Amino acid sequence: YGTALKDIRQMGLLLDDLALDNDLAAIEPGSYSLGTDLGVYLDTNGTPVLGAVATAPAGTTPWNDPWGNIYRYQRPAVDPNPNDGRQEYLVFSQGADTSDSSDDAHN
Q1: How far apart are CA 59 and CA 88, in angstroms?
Q2: Cross-strand pairs, 92
């Protein structure tokens, strides 16, 4: 669980700058619908790439949590803090049970 939280914090450092600039769309696939999960993949340089959970974009490998499951990204359909000047997002692991539940690790 601790490794998952460390990984998620590391991804947060990369995504927070985009969120503050309201530019998360720059890394989301063009067909992305707010509120849906994307898988987090890494290219050969270690740069995160977002794509469908079950299909790795070309030239990438899945970024997996300690349980061997892909980390997921989601931007909520409704911003819970619309006046804070930044976009909201989640990076999370579904944990050992691979389902959305209270034991998930997230930012």
Answers
A1: 28
A2: 72, 106
Contact 27, 18 (CB under 8 A): yes
Stated pTM of the model: 0.80
**What whole-number distance in Å separates Cα of residue 85 and Cα of residue 21?**
8
CA–chain centroid gap for 60, Å, is 15
H helix intervals, the chain = 2-20
pLDDT 10s digits, 43-66: 999 888 999 998 899 999 999 988
Both structure tokens of 27: 């890394």
Q: What confidence tens digit (pLDDT) does each residue in 9-45 have?
A: 888 888 888 888 888 888 889 888 999 999 999 999 9
- Token pair of 53 as six digits: 């959970």
Cα–Cα distance for residue pair 51/16, rounded to 1 Å:
19
